[in-house]
Amino acid sequence: MTQLASIIPAAGLGTRMRGGDKLTEQVDGVALLRRIALAASSVSARVIVALPDPAGARGAALDGLDVLRIPVPDAAEGMARSLVRAARAVPENARGILILPADMPEITAADLRHLAQHFAEGDGQRILRATTENGAPGHPVIFPSRFRAALTQLTGDAGARDILAAEAEAGCVDHVALPANRARVDLDTPEDWARWRAAQGAGRMDG
């Protein structure tokens, strides 16, 4: 398996949860953030988690895991602050940088291994982006290590979208489909969580 470092941006305020925290919501009996970190650990030599407060509830969800917790006291300035601070901690020998949003409850370790295998089989110079089974682009994304410097210079709340857009226009992004809509399922509000849990329950009953 190719040498990957994973960045999990988990410092967002999550105000749309209206007092709750989507990253400590339980998925299959495990806090979502812990579940995502465990999945990332299956493909990464280094897992870097950007947190608003490493001593807070999100940090507690990671207790016992071999992850590097990066504080982001200026997280309110936008997603870029998390990516910048985490990218600075990426080891120099990493061949790729996996960016895995923390609020994607359907992403599995098997999905990440599938993406990592595709990246390992490539030349290590092209971005690899997950899509839905119908081809709609989503996350996670693996950036070759040559983008490390660019990731440390991001600003605002758009994350790495400008990099992705420019590279896609240049034909330098490869897409890998994941099952169903996994690459685009993120849950930001209590209503999102309620609908998702209802759908999961219906799916189990149908099965």
How would you describe what is shown here?
- The chain is of the alpha/beta class and 207 residues long.
- It contains 7 helices and 9 strands, in the order E-E-E-H-E-H-E-H-E-H-E-E-H-H-E-H.
- The chain has helices at 32-41, 57-60, 79-87, 109-121, 148-151, 161-169, 190-206; strands spanning 4-9, 26-27, 30-31, 46-51, 68-71, 96-99, 127-131, 137-144, 173-177.
- It starts with a strand and ends with a helix.
Structural key phrases:
207 residues; alpha/beta; Spore Coat Polysaccharide Biosynthesis Protein SpsA, Chain A; seven-stranded mixed beta sheet; 7 helices; 9 strands; 32% helix
**Number of domain modules:** 1
The structure class reads alpha/beta
Q: Got a strand count?
A: 9
Note the run of SSEs as H and E. EEEHEHEHEHEEHHEH
Average predicted confidence as pLDDT? 92
What composes the largest sheet?
Answer: 7 strands, mixed
Rough shape? Answer: globular
Q: What CATH architecture label applies?
A: Alpha-Beta Complex
Residues in β-strands, percent? 15-25%
CATH topology: Spore Coat Polysaccharide Biosynthesis Protein SpsA, Chain A
Distance, first to last CA: 34 Å
Compact description:
By secondary structure, this protein is α/β, with parallel strands linked by helices. Helices cover 32% and strands 20% of the residues.
What order do the helices and strands come in, and which of them pair?
Blueprint: E1 4-9, E2 26-27, E3 30-31, H1 32-41, E4 46-51, H2 57-60, E5 68-71, H3 79-87, E6 96-99, H4 109-121, E7 127-131, E8 137-144, H5 148-151, H6 161-169, E9 173-177, H7 190-206
Parallel strand pairs: 1-4, 1-6, 4-5, 7-9
Antiparallel strand pairs: 2-3, 6-8, 7-8
